Amino acid sequence: MSTLRELTVIGMADPRGLDINTCLLADDWIDHNHPEIVQKVKELTDGLDNDWDKVRVIFNFIRDEIEYNFAPLIESKNDWKASSVLAEKNGMCHQKSNLQVAFFRAAGIPAALTYQKIVDHPLMRTRYKEMIPDGILPFHALAAVHVDEKWYRMEATLDSGLCERRGYRKTEMKECEETLLPATKENGDPHFEIIEDHGYFESYPEEFLDTMLANKERLKLWRAFVRKEHLSM
From CA 120, how far away is CA 124, in angstroms rounded? Predict the structure, then answer.
């Protein structure tokens, strides 16, 4: 039984090769035709005509109103549906990025998924080093959005509350710029290091679903480990 660390999932290296029309469609995981998603996006973007204004309100909602959960309850494939994440109001990076892409598409803005191999340096100085000794997260997920004929990655994983508690730098969306994981914490200590990009995807890769569900018992142990001190990260 393989784990995420053993997977090889490679997307499109250049996002300009993505099909714009496909990046507006709903599917099993990016179910932006769900009435709750339609209603929330309409509420957020009402009166906004500029795509960047829409991107900003969606980015802020995903970042802060959907709390980051380092150890979500994983029971079935439904847990990765964007509509399920919205209902739960929390999720890991894969779940939050699925919802983020769904919101962008519901607003009529093409969006895709992308993944990175990263090092989370603070993990190596906490009790989490017992299970992640090198601090490597092999497939960190985030969304990419297409505005004004260009693609921009949009990192909205860590909510503001978590950042304030942990002394992390909060990601801020800026027009015509990518928003990526911050390299340092507020005090200047190393935080995130992006060591490999896995490319861009028009839909959520089934390999992730299959692997995580195959390791459901391990994920339960991880969840129990994390919840001992009621921490999300």
Answer: 8
